[in-house]
Each structure stands twice: as structure tokens, then as C-alpha cells.
Write the C-alpha cells for this entry.
Amino acid sequence: MVVSFSGKSQIVQDFTLTNVMDGKTVSLSGFKSCQGIAVIFTSNECPFDAQYRDRIKALNEQYKDAIQFLLVNSHLETKENDKVMAQKFSSWSIPVPYLADKDQTAMDRLGASRSPEVFLIKKDGANNSIVYQGAIDDNPLVPSDVNHSFLRMAIDQLIANKKIEIVSNRAVGCTIRKK
């Protein structure tokens, strides 16, 4: 089931993935006390993903009381297996779950196609709806030259209960190969 996000709130069916760091399962429905969830598709090997690790860490630190960040790896290449994911992730120092999506359930339910690509999900009782999809910001290579921090703007608007002004844009990164 591929989701096409058109800017209208798109309900996301719950999914459960395994955190490679502790072997525990994580579901969207398990996060009851946050205002939203930022699901970021990432990988071990894509150079664009590496450029965003410090920015993701900073965003998580800034919004940890309101937004749950999840890193999801749907890449199928050998260097993206669970064991390598756990080895790589331990050096990233980002205190969020790193979830293996090797059957590509989350990828299909959200409509992800590349990494890094983010989906900001609004929690509304038992419902989860996408309110922003796309790039984290407008400069994957030079953090100091970012003019528009799309995810930060969307999170601020979500937390303030305001209309999300930019609901989607094209993510730049590595294509996630479908199985």
C-alpha cells in the first residue's frame, strides 16, 4: 500500500519494527505522550544520510519533549543488514531508536522512496496522520548554508497547533531499492 501525500492529512496505518540496538519492537501506537513522530528514513552508507546525522541529533535534542524521532532503514543492500546497522549506529550518538524495515512495511505505508526522507506524523488519539513529508532542510551538503529548515518549521507549527505551511517537498538523497 503506497501512500501518496498531497498535502491533506493522510492517515498512516500502524506498523511495528525492531530496534537493532536492543532487539525490542517499536510501534507508532506505542508513543502516547508525544505530539508527533518524526520518521526519518536513513541508511548506513548513503553520503547524504551522513551529512544529516548531526542535524538530526540537534533536532532530537531540541524537540525531545514533544516529538519522538525514529530512524528507519529500509535499504536491502548487504552493508545495510541489522548487524551492520547496530555497529554503525553505536558511533552516531543519536539517542533514538534505529529500526530495521527489511520487509519495507514502513516504507510502503508512508510512501518513502529515498534517504534521508522525513515524515512528520501528528498524533491524534489513536490516529496518526502525515502533516509533512520530504527533505529535512534545503541544503544537504552545507549545514551553515541552510536557508529553510523544513522539518523544524513543520514541527514548530505542529506544536503550536498551527496550519503546516509547507506540507511537502522533494527529498534529495539515495534511492531506496524496492524488494
The helical segments are 47-63, 82-89, 105-110, 150-159. The mean pLDDT is 92. The first strand starts at residue 10 and ends at 11. The longest helix spans residues 47-63.
